[in-house]
Amino acid sequence: MADPLIHPHETLTTPAGEDVEIDLDMVPVVRELWRLRIKTTACCQDVGEATAGVRAQRDTPLGYGGDGFIAYHRGWALLKLPVPDARRLVALLAETPDFAPHVCHPWRPGSWRMNVPLGQDGIADDALLHLPREQLPSLAEALRAVDGLTRSSPGTAP
Question: pTM to 2 decimals?
C-alpha cells in the first residue's frame, strides 16, 4: 500500500532493480512470482488490517476504507499484477491439486477473487487478486514446485 507501512516488512530488490518494501508474509510468495517472471505491482498480507491501520494514522479520510470495507477485507491478502501476469498465475495454479479448487470455483470457502478495475481508458492494466491470508505459505510452496521456463502460457515470454 502506498500509505504508511502497517505490517512488518522487508526490503527486496525487484527484477528491474528497484528497492521495494514487501510485507513479511508476502515475501516468499513475491520471490517465487519474480522467479517465475510474474510481475507484481503491489501486495498486502491483510488488506482489512492495513486499511484500518492507515485510517487510524490519517487526519483526512481515505476515500475508501469504511468499517464495512475493513471488515470484509480482514484476513484477505492482495496481489496486484498486470492482467497478463494475473492470467498466467491463475492458469499455473489451476493445474495444481492444492490451488485448482481455489482459482477455478468462485464463491466457495477459500476461493480467490479477481477483479480488474475500470480506468479512464477502459479496463485497468492491473488485476487485483484477493486470497485468504492463511493460504500464503502453501501458495509459496506451490509456486516453488512450478518450473517457470517450461510452464509459460502461449504468448508469454518465459
Answer: 0.85
